[in-house]
Write a structure and sequence with these properties.
A: alpha/beta, about 40% helix, B: alpha/beta, Rossmann fold, five-stranded parallel sheet, 32 strands, binds flavin-adenine dinucleotide, binds FE2/S2 (inorganic) cluster
């Protein structure tokens, strides 16, 4: 993949299995087209995602990493999404502090019925990262 | 040992194959680490497809598999069962979602094919690290506990008992019946509670499978679905239930008068009393806070008067420990106490009453034998103003919900008033009319057309007591006209609010409350009677304001959920729960603080190092309480906790493979 000319970003999305993953399914059943750059990893709850996994994805060449969970108050496990939100709010600042563009990392609330929102976020993120360029800083050997 | 992974690629008719090169995907799968078989088929989920999977597992000696197909939310369960019937542990199956997350959302066939291969690679990398898991078995105690003896609790208890299970119905007050027993008539059919509620109350007391504990509270709850350990506190009634005949001689002799709770303080009762004539059980109780014997020790009038000798001053609170498979919470609601000063600029006046007080005043067995009178002077009011939604949307009190019954109960009150005293005027101030129930719209129209009640859309700004009347100032927001009504009585439809102790009960039970303090359901749309805690269900107004029809509907729904659980001898629970490796655990207990289910506790272990025994604090997971969210694994400092089925190793392998 030549980096300069037609750069295609790799976007890893951690989706909680109860809401956001189902939101992705909803985008599918509604045939809402979004870029194939996006790859989803299913987790039980956004609260299960550790910073370690996010860093790992960046190191393995992800150009952006998103975490998606149930809306506040809707977490299948009561408060996992709140914990995740707090954790990644701090972690996002940390990434920015060490020189990672804030656009490369995002936390979103996507419910099971928000197929259009899922597709929109995936499209927007892909476009943003396309113009931002590849993640060279954290990437190890791809 | 080398893994033997099989990959089953589905074309899903043409739903996948039209956007993804199936052959290329299958060929690529065959080259993935650990994969010994990859094949495609038009519908793996079909009967023949499943049989082919079974045959392949056996023929190829597969020890785990990936199905690349539709969303795991559709067929993960199907393929787990298929695996199980081929003798493979069902937790050694992973799904790669190449339909909803790929073929249906990407137009470019080349890109979609590359992505499908990446998704399968990730699933194969994960499944290579999956462990065999075996669900736990929890024996179920075949008895239910219903907390709260209002109409909701009564309905739940009867339904469960009718299904053949034992039920304990626990009621805090001396009698069951709840708020419904206080009502005069019931909208929309204008039924009489004595006619429809009393038989149900009697059925409770006579049903062989129902044990009724009145004047009883919950003291402690431990355990979990299938086997809750509950301590009941049977408060001292000071009257022996077995002996009391309910004759009433005791309260005739009792010298102490106290405001009657059942009559909303509109009249008095004695310190020894039966709350209302249809009470179940029909047994007296001594209110020790007001009784002279307990205050001063110089009266025993009731004891002397009681023919069967049922009065027992020495009775003590009794504690009873019982086990239940399921719990239904049906503790109902309280009524908002209107702050008339801040809302209408006038201190509480005797002729300003709440809807529930109105119910008592027009009740044939109420304090005035059904004659509606002004508490201030005993006269029948000529003009009554009914105000809807009092306390609703109250910013200060932070209540932002609709009470659901106020519009209808105000209409009912206007109807009762006009029916009994036709030569009068009734005004109803409303801002929004909520008449969503069956027949409600017709009811409102009837109140206006047949009974001539006058609806005013608008707010009451001020009420001023003047010359023996209540001067009600308001604005009709439909025509902008200011109104001044010289009312004899004002009836406030006070909001339904959570029980004042709802938070304490929620804490005891380990269930959640919503922003307003009502108990919260697990999912508003899809799990409306379950709570977040497995085995605890909600019925009636404790979950949010409801009319009786809704409360009963929910009560029956909760009962059927409970019956569903009780019908199992053994519950099988998801084995994907957290696990502590105590040799790595540092005892920091960060996990304990993030666990939303209280599933983690501390434990002391003994370790022997070079012959010396050390005692050390570690965390321990209660595998039955754990629901498998995985928050603890992230908070764990030494990385000692892992979530089975979603371990770091599995997820990291997935990340690595998906990024390739
Ligand atoms: C003024 C007014 C008029 C109404 N008119 C109508 C009408 O005409 N038609 C209609 O359909 N609905 C009407 N309603 C609504 C109706 O009252 C409720 O729908 C119904 O009472 C809800 O029943 P419930 O069993 O959920 O709660 P409740 O009736 O509140 O019963 C709850 C029971 O639980 C007990 N309890 C509470 N906490 C505990 C505890 N911690 N431990 C043990 N026991 C506990 C209480 O003592 C009570 O007995 C009216 C309500 C009001 C206020
Ligand atoms: S289950 Fe969706 S965020 Fe917790």
């Amino acid at each position: 993949m030549s980096i300069k000319n037609n750069f295609e970003p790799l976007i890893i999305v951690f989706c909680c299995q109860w809401c956001s993953y189902a939101g992705g399914d909803m985008a599918g059943t509604s045939h809402l087209v979004y870029p194939a750059n996006v790859r989803v990893i299913r987790v039980p709850c956004s609260g299960r995602v550790s910073p370690n996994l996010v860093l790992r994805a960046f190191q393995r060449g992800a150009d952006a990493v998103l975490i998606a969970g149930c809306h506040p108050g809707d977490c299948h496990y009561i408060s996992g999404n709140n914990l995740a939100y707090r954790r990644f709010h701090l972690f996002g600042s940390f990434l920015e502090f060490i020189g990672i563009e804030p656009e490369r990392f995002g936390f979103h609330w996507i419910s099971a019925s928000e197929g259009p929102k899922f597709a929109r976020i995936m499209t927007e993120t892909t476009e943003t990262i396309r113009s931002l360029g590849p993640n060279l800083k954290l990437r190890g050997q791809r | 040992m080398k893994k033997r992974i099989g990959v089953f690629v589905c074309s899903c008719g043409s739903d996948i194959s039209s956007a993804v090169e199936i052959d290329a995907v299958t060929a690529a799968s065959r080259r993935m680490p650990g994969v010994v078989y990859a094949g495609d088929y038009i519908y793996w989920c079909s009967k023949s497809g499943q049989q082919m999977i079974i045959d392949t597992i056996k023929g190829e000696r597969l020890d785990r598999m990936v199905v690349a197909s539709c969303s795991p939310r559709l067929h993960e369960g199907t393929f787990m069962k298929t695996a199980a019937s081929a003798g493979m542990n069902p937790y050694l199956v992973e799904i790669a979602n190449i339909r909803e997350h790929c073929s249906w959302v990407h137009k470019d066939k080349k890109e979609a094919t590359v992505k499908a291969i990446a998704l399968i690679r990730a699933a194969a990398a994960k499944v290579a690290r999956n462990q065999e898991l075996i669900p736990f078995e929890i024996p179920v105690v075949p008895r239910a506990l219903v907390i709260g003896g209002g109409i909701a609790g009564i309905q739940s208890a009867l339904d469960i008992a009718e299904a053949g299970y034992q039920v304990d119905l626990l009621e805090r007050s001396p009698s069951i019946g709840g708020r419904m027993a206080q009502l005069e008539t019931i909208f929309p059919e204008m039924d009489c509670p004595a006619r429809i509620l009393t038989p149900k109350m009697l059925e409770i007391s006579s049903h062989p499978d129902i044990t009724l504990y009145t004047y009883t509270e919950i003291e402690k709850v431990t355990g979990n679905v299938g086997n809750f350990d509950v301590t009941l506190r049977l408060k001292a009634r000071s009257v022996l239930i077995e002996k009391c005949t309910g004759c009433g001689l005791c309260w005739e002799k009792c010298p102490v008068n106290v405001e009657s709770e059942f009559d909303e303080g509109l009249c008095s009762r004695k310190a020894i009393y039966i709350p209302f004539p249809q009470a179940v059980p029909n047994v007296s109780v001594i209110d020790r806070a007001s009784c002279r014997w307990f205050r001063q020790g110089d009266c025993a009038a009731c004891k002397k008067a009681c023919p069967p000798g049922a009065v027992d001053f020495n009775q003590r609170d009794e504690f009873l420990e019982k086990n239940y498979g399921v719990i239904i919470t049906a503790t109902g609601f309280d009524l908002f106490k209107p702050d008339t000063l801040s809302q209408f600029g006038c201190a509480k006046h005797p002729d300003m009453i709440t809807g529930l007080e109105f119910e008592r005043l027009v009740n044939t067995s109420g304090p005035t034998a059904g004659r509606l009178i002004r508490p201030s002077n005993g006269q029948v009011p000529r003009k009554v103003v009914f105000i809807h939604c009092v306390g609703y949307h109250d910013e200060k009190e932070r209540k932002s919900f609709c009470s659901r019954i106020c519009c209808m109960s105000s209409a009912k009150h206007a109807l009762l008033f006009k029916e009994r005293y036709p030569q009068t005027e009734a005004y109803l101030f409303y801002e929004n009319l909520c008449s969503s129930g069956k027949g409600f719209e017709k009811f409102h129209r009837r109140v206006v057309e047949d009974y001539g009640a006058q609806y005013v859309r608008g707010a009451v700004s001020k009420i001023k007591p003047e010359g023996g009347k209540l001067l009600v100032h308001g604005v009709d927001s439909l025509n902008g006209q200011e109104l001044k009504i010289e009312a004899d009585m004002v009836v406030l439809a006070a909001a339904l609010i959570p029980r004042s102790d709802s938070l304490e009960l929620a804490r005891l039970l380990g269930i959640g409350t919503d922003g307003n303090g009502f108990f919260s359901e697990a999912h508003t749309l899809l799990r409306p009677v379950e709570t977040h805690k497995a085995g605890i269900f909600l019925a009636g107004a404790c979950q949010g304001p409801k009319d009786i029809a809704e409360a009963v509907t929910q009560a029956s729904a909760a009962a059927s959920k409970a019956i569903g659980l009780l019908s199992y001898d053994i519950l099988v629970s998801d084995p994907c729960v957290s696990q502590v490796n105590s040799s790595h655990c540092s005892g920091c207990l960060s996990c304990l603080h993030v666990c939303p289910y209280g599933a983690i506790s501390e434990k002391i272990i003994e370790e022997r190092v070079r012959g010396i025994v050390f005692r050390r604090l570690v965390a321990e997971v209660n595998e039955i309480l754990c629901r498998g969210c995985g928050s603890c694994t992230v908070s764990c400092r030494p990385g000692a906790i892992s979530l089975k089925g979603w371990t770091d190793e599995q997820l990291i392998a997935e990340v690595d493979a998906i990024c390739l």
